[in-house]
Amino acid sequence: MLSTKMPKILIVGSGLTGSLVAASLLKLGKENINDQVQLSIWEKARGAGGRMSTSRSPHNQLCAADLGAQYITCTPHYGKEHSKYYEELLSVGILEPLKLNINNCHEHEAGTKHYISPNGMSSLVKYFLNKYECEPEFEHHITSVTRINEKWCVSTLQGKQNYFDVVILTIPVPQILQLGGSVKDILENNHEMKTKLENVKYSARYVMSLYYDHGTELNLPFDASYIKDDPVFRFIAVDNLRRNRPDVPTSVILHTSVPFGVQHIDLTVPEAEPILKEALKRSFPDLPSPKAFKCHKWRYSQVTKPYEDQPGVLEISQEPLLLVGGDGFTHSNFDGCVSSAEKIIQHFTSKTANL
Fold it and tell me: Helix H segments across the chain?
C-alpha cells in the first residue's frame, strides 16, 4: 500500500498504456491516500489516443475514421487474463463485437473474438482518462529529462520546464532514445540496455481517410478487405460500417503496406498526399470524390521486434524513479498495452511503498 506521501508523477504519452497507467494511479490514490495523487500527463499531439486516434471530417463531426487500430483481436488466453477490462468496456458500450466481414483476413485461433469501438478507438483511451478525471496537457513535446537535486527536470520543445519525483515514459522507443539530459547519459553508460532499446523495431505506414455524406454510394465490392498484390495499399474499410454505425455519415479508411511506408517514410505528409491520391485513383477508380480528405503518417506504426524478453516495463533509473513502458516492451496490440500498464503499476508500487 502507498503511503500518504505521494510522489509528484509525470506520465509522458496519452495513448492506451499511458491512459491505463494514469487511471490506475488515480484509482490507487482514491483507495489508499485520500486523493493526494499529484499526476501530470504530457502529450505531444493535439489530442489523446496515440495509435488509437480517431479523426473527424471538418464538415461534420459525426463523420469519423480511425487512423490507427481498426479492431481489437482477443485470443482466449487474453480474454481470460484481461477479462475485467473487456467486460467493463463491453458493459458501457465502449466496445462492441465486430460484425463486418473482412475479406482476406487471416485465420485466428479458435475462440478468438474481435471488437470495435463504435464511437472511434480514441473513445476507448478517453474512457480511461475520463474515468478518474485525468486531463492531459497537449502539444507538450518533451526533449530532455535531467536529474537535478533528486528530482527530474523535464523540458519541452515549446519551452516548458517542470520538476517531478517520478517520470513514466509510454512513448515509442526511438523517441526515448532521442531524449537529451540525464536519460541520454544513463543510456550511454549502460551499453547493454541501450543496445536492447536500439534493437526494438517498428513498421511504418501512411493512412488515408475519406469523408462523405451519409448514404454515399461507394461502388466497392466489399465493406472491408485486406488487399493482396497492391503496390501501395494493404487495407481498406468503410469505416462507419466497420464501427457498426450505418446511421452516421460515410467514411473510408485506407492503410498503406509496410514496404510502401518504409520506402516513403521520410516524405512529409504534403509530399506523400499526391502520391497516395494518384494510387487511390489507380486502385479504386470507381470511388467518388470525398467531401474531405486526410493523410496521416505513422512513423512508428506497429512493433515488429519488441524489447528482449518483453518485460512490460524497464527501469532506467531507481533514484529518482524513471520507468519506460508501452507495446515496445510487450507486443503491439490492446492486450500488449494492458500488460505493460499492469507491469508499470506493479513496479511503481513496489518502488514507492516507502516514500
Answer: 16-32, 76-81, 83-91, 122-131, 173-177, 182-188, 191-198, 239-242, 258-264, 269-283, 334-352
